[in-house]
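Q: I have four molecules that I believe assemble together. Could you output structure tokens for the complex as a whole instead of separate predictions?
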Amino acid sequence: MSSNVEVLERIKDTTFALRTKLFRGLADASRLSILDALRTRPLSVGQIVAITGLSQPNASNHLRCLSECGLVSGEQRGRFVHYRLSDQRLNDLFLLSDELLTETACAVDTCGNYGTS
Amino acid sequence: MSSNVEVLERIKDTTFALRTKLFRGLADASRLSILDALRTRPLSVGQIVAITGLSQPNASNHLRCLSECGLVSGEQRGRFVHYRLSDQRLNDLFLLSDELLTETACAVDTCGNYGTS
DNA sequence: TAGACATATCAGTCACGGATGATATATAGC
DNA sequence: GCTATATATCATCCGTGACTGATATGTCTA
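A: Yes, here they are, computed for all four components at once.
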């Protein structure tokens, strides 16, 4: 039998792990550009490629990732696959992020710990 | 002179870059555990080390990163440095993230594209 | 069924960034 | 000033994950 403390530890660890994965899913300019492109309307992979400038395999890979994470969902229509945001609350998340950024923008911008890549 | 389109492109690129950096700052379990520890009260580095189980240099490194990004601010008090969340909206961000996760939790959990490390 | 188009997968390369151990800096007390 | 404690920095190693080019799968049209 596990103590309450241990149980709470595990719950917390799981929460952190999930949050980490979610944020990691969002911690990529390519994926963010895809999500942004999908903000207003569903798009085919070709359209996404055209808008974002990503290579087709690259876009496809990111879409698979986003899809597996549930952030995006794809629907086959003939030869095309139309992707859409699966949760509109992503927009809220971006709005909140931008709020945070307007307050700490310079800081994040000038932080040299990791690049923009 | 730049066209409007080009200007908008650059603004968008900057936005994406900043968002990417913000999310990357949050895309690490160690940093998330630090931010979580600081959610209720300011803490010294030693306390953070004790709570999170991180090594002292590692915690210090992450704190520098978080500090440079403006997510956290430190204040020297004698031999100690007390860190605090610099923006309480981080809590809102985590709440919103957890909302998203409860809807897409399984998906993110089982997504094999990147590990929990 | 053949050929064209849309998307997905695969193998390989490469850089970023997180962790560690050792060490440096700084502040307090004696 | 000397020692102990608290925190920061440094060099290094190593794994993860993003990108590319080639290729496979799948779907439509003729």
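A: One point stands out. The mean pLDDT of chain B is 90.
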